[in-house]
Amino acid sequence: MSKNGAGVRPESPVALVTGASGGLGQALALELDALGCRVAVHYNSSRQGAEAVREKLTNPSVLVTGDVGSWEATQALHAQITAELGPVDVLVNNGAIRKDSLMAMQNPADWAQVIQTNLIGSFHTARASVPHMLRQRWGRVINIVSPSGIIATAGQTAYSASKAGLIGFTRTLASECGRRGVTVNALSPGFMITGMTNTLPDRVIEGMEDKAPIPRFVTVEEVARSVGLFLDQDCMTGQVISIDSGVSIT
Ligand SMILES: NC(=O)c1ccc[n+]([C@@H]2O[C@H](COP(=O)([O-])OP(=O)(O)OC[C@H]3O[C@@H](n4cnc5c(N)ncnc54)[C@H](OP(=O)(O)O)[C@@H]3O)[C@@H](O)[C@H]2O)c1
């Protein structure tokens, strides 16, 4: 064991990627597999997307499903991962939804669902996996956040509050886990064309690229490539790493 209480990184860590059926989640699953992880490929409703990415993985993997907004469903999917691969060593809270509306007109049930999925769901998965990480004195929690967590975008009070909350969660959980070799960080991608954004009207997307210091969208592969940094760095915790074309500094 090292001086800071960290244990040894497992040879082939078990990595849970929530929402691995979606755009960024698929790329994250592939990258973690390439880095030697055994990936739990999670989906909520798009089994096809999850199966497609699982077929490309080279290491042992498992397909799991469930709404992370439900504590019972989250416990069940963790039990399946533990039985088939072992407990989760690397948690990537990637699964999320967006239900945009000006707040004064927003359906309260929609607002609550965004918080339930994006924020409370991330608590559920962390609650289910972090005790094992603390016991083995090595673990990684990577929360996918968004520039919307810090930059105001009209129509996104729910999404923004969920991601800002997740940044606070990241920092505070990091402070609880550092002495036991578990790092907790956030990864903030810029605008990517995925299932979450490809239904936006052209007039919203047009001109968006030019607002960033690096005037282009980010690809899911570019964001996923950074995940190795989170695995490798024992002394990086509580941070928000932005791969966002610089939009967060505007
Ligand atoms: N796209 C962007 O421009 C952008 C920018 C910044 C941050 N992000 C963040 O990047 C992450 C990935 O999003 P994406 O762009 O790849 O969008 P996406 O293609 O829509 O993927 C979202 C994923 O979340 C899953 N999901 C939805 N409801 C869920 C629930 N109740 N429980 C568990 N998983 C659920 C979906 O699963 P099913 O399809 O199986 O239902 C899907 O796999 C999200 O955290 C998002 O906030 C995206």
Task: Give a description of the structure.
The protein has 250 residues and is of the alpha/beta class. The protein has a single domain (14-245), classed as 3-Layer(aba) Sandwich (Rossmann fold). The chain contains nine helices and seven strands, in the order βαβαβαβαβαβααααβ. The protein has helices at residues 23-34, 47-55, 71-84, 108-136, 157-177, 202-205, 208-211, 220-224, 227-232; strands spanning 14-17, 38-43, 62-65, 90-93, 139-144, 182-189, 240-243. A seven-stranded parallel β-sheet has the order 3-2-1-4-5-6-7, with helices on both faces. β2 (38-43), α2 and β3 (62-65) form a beta-alpha-beta unit. The relative contact order is 0.15. The model has no long low-confidence stretch (mean pLDDT 96). NADP nicotinamide-adenine-dinucleotide phosphate (NAP) binds at residues 18-19, 21-25, 43-46, 67-69, 94-97, 117, 121, 144, 146, 189, 191-192, 194-197. NADP nicotinamide-adenine-dinucleotide phosphate is lined by residues 18-19, 21-25, 43-46, 67-69, 94-97, 117, 121, 144, 146, 189, 191-192, 194-197.
